[in-house]
Design brief:
This protein has about 350 residues and is an alpha/beta fold. About 25% of the residues lie in helices and about 25% in strands. Strand 13, helix 8 and strand 14 form a beta-alpha-beta unit. Helix 4 crosses helix 5.
């Protein structure tokens, strides 16, 4: 297969910093779109992947799956995209296309397993996929989305993972007027969950361990913000919430939050703690409660989310950085020192 070399940023081991490297991208095939990457968001899963926290990382690795760019080439059979169009590529860049899940537009649950935008076996080119910390990306048009003309394009990049990760469960569990929804954690995911849930018409109560984030939650649109160490404030919401979106990626006691649910309520896990979480049988049996999970969204739903966010002027609170500062950004992300999403201006990566 024809390939060409491009500049990227990646690492060769779990203990090495990210550095500039050359990688190969495939030549554009008949159904492919090539894009020049303008911005790429930094996700907590990028951090887990480069450190091999979940196991399964293949080095060298080039992270990045919140990829916003402009089309530079299209294959001869591409019908839905044009040169110069703004587009996005999120987590999924391939799936089997014929199982019940792919046919239902929920490719994230593909029976044969999806190909992720980085650190996945590449069924077309061989080797592993390399992500968006790079000059260009090449992807089958089925997994590319149209990017609306957001006023702040850089801040829209993070919608491609963080946005869909919270939009999908908010929609599935029915965020709407008359619903009281809890958001656990105010980070890259949580701050977008607040904005999207409010735009859907729900009443939003935020739970945080950080006193400094209580006021910020209200600035973001939350109706109430509760310090989870304040037992009296927490008790106010016992058996009051219809569901809770749990965005926390560290070990924590979810039973505390199960007790805030009404009957038939659900705690929906979208964070990815490395360690297992313990669930008390009594806390789910009482009130017929559920502990569930949600994993990104399909391509059609990602497009729906982008259009919804554009209509409601929702983007991520973003700190724009140059690629040369990416290691500092990862150090800060590990300490929770970002409000609330880093986005790389890929123009800083020279040819």
């Amino acid at each position: 297969m024809n390939t060409h070399s491009i500049k990227a940023y990646g690492t060769v081991s779990a203990t090495q910093p990210l550095q500039e490297m050359d990688i190969n991208r495939r030549a554009v095939l008949a159904h492919d779109v090539e894009l020049e990457i303008l911005y790429c968001g930094i996700c907590h899963s990028d951090l887990h992947s480069i450190h091999n926290d979940w196991g399964g990382t293949t080095y060298p690795i080039v992270p990045g799956h919140e990829i916003l760019g402009r089309v530079t080439k299209i294959g001869e059979h591409v019908k839905n995209f044009k040169i110069e169009e703004l587009v996005g590529v999120g987590c999924i860049v391939d799936s089997c296309g014929h199982c019940e899940y792919c046919e239902d537009g929920i490719e994230q649950f593909c029976d044969e397993g999806v190909t992720f935008s980085f650190n996945s076996p590449d069924k077309i080119s061989g080797g592993m996929t390399y992500g968006g910390f790079a000059k260009t990306y090449v992807c089958n048009e089925k997994y590319v989305v149209h990017m609306p003309e957001f006023k702040d394009l850089a801040a829209a990049a993070s919608l491609l993972c963080a946005g869909i990760t919270v939009y999908s469960p908010l929609k599935h569990w029915g965020a709407a007027p008359g619903k009281k929804i809890g958001i656990l954690g105010i980070g890259g995911l949580g701050h977008l969950a607040i904005k999207i849930a409010k735009a859907m018409g729900a009443e939003v109560i935020v739970f945080t361990t950080s006193p400094s984030k209580v006021e910020d939650a209200k600035r973001l649109g939350a109706d109430e913000a509760v310090l989870s160490s304040d037992a009296e404030a927490m008790a106010k919401y016992n058996r009051k919430l219809h569901f809770i979106i749990d965005t926390v990626s560290a070990k924590h006691d979810v039973n505390t939050y199960l007790n805030l649910l009404r009957h038939d309520g659900t705690v929906v896990m979208v964070g990815l703690p490395v360690e297992p979480l313990e669930i008390s049988a009594f806390d789910v049996v009482h009130g017929r409660r559920s502990f569930a999970g949600s994993n990104i969204g399909g391509i059609a739903e990602t497009q729906e989310m982008l259009d919804f966010c554009f209509e409601h002027n929702i983007t991520a609170e973003s700190e724009i950085i140059n690629i040369q500062d990416v290691n500092t950004a990862f150090d800060r992300l590990e300490k929770g020192d970002v409000k609330y999403r880093f986005v790389i201006d890929m123009a800083s990566l020279k040819n």
